[in-house]
Amino acid sequence: MGSVIKSQGTDLYWASAPTAATRAVCITGVSGLGGARDQIESTCLDNTVDKTFVAGLGNPGAVTVNFNVHKDELSHAALLALKDSGAEVSWGIYSSDSALAPTVLASVMQVVTTRVSAIFKGYVSDINIDISGNDIWKGTITIQRSGAVAFKMTTV
Fold it and tell me: pTM of the predicted model, to two decimals?
C-alpha cells in the first residue's frame, strides 16, 4: 500500500531560461491541476431515452498558487515580470520526498526521480496581492495552463 504525499517541503519551479529553473519562494498552497473534458454528442436519431456522448478534448484549467510576499525576494519580482511578459513557460511542482532541485532541458522542467512531480506549461495570467489589518502581505498567482499535466507519482 502506498503512502501519502506530505505537503510540507513542496516546491514550485519554473523554467526561467533554457537550462535554468527558479523556485517560487514561500508558496502556501496550490490548486487547479484538473480540467474537465469536453463532451461531444453522439446521439442517433433512433435514441428515444437519453442522449449519448463521447469524450472530447480536455480543458486545461487555471492553477492557483498562494504565497506569502517577501520584500527583496527576487523570485517574486521575477513572477511579476513573467506576468507582464505573457510568456508561456514550463512549470514543475515537486514533493518533499527529497530536496534535490529539478533541472531544465530545452526550457522544459524535468522530473526528479526522488520526488513526485506535476509538470505543465502555462503563462501567468494574474497576480493579486492582498493586504489586511494585523496580517502579512499575501499573494495569489494564477497560471493559465496550456496542455496536459504530466504527473509522476513514483519516487523510483
Answer: 0.91
pLDDT in tens, 91-118: 999 999 998 999 999 999 999 999 999 9
Is the sign of the CA dihedral 30, 141, 145, 115 positive or negative? Answer: negative
- CATH hierarchy code of domain 11-33+55-152: 2.30.110
Every domain of the chain and the residues it spans: 11-33+55-152
Nearest CA to 63 out of 24, 99, 101 is that of 24
Binning the chain into helix, strand and coil, the percentages to the nearest 5 are 10, 45, 50
Is residue 65 predicted with pLDDT exceeding 70? Answer: yes
**Other CB atoms within 10 Å distance of the CB of residue 32:** 16
Q: Which cell is 51 given?
A: 442522449
Q: In whole angstroms, what is the distance from residue 54 CA to residue 144 CA?
A: 26
Per-residue pLDDT, 1: 57
Q: Strand 37-41 and strand 108-109: pairing?
A: unpaired
- What is the distance between the alpha carbons of residues 71 and 135, in angstroms, rounded to a whole number? 15
7, 16 in Cβ contact below 8 A? Answer: no
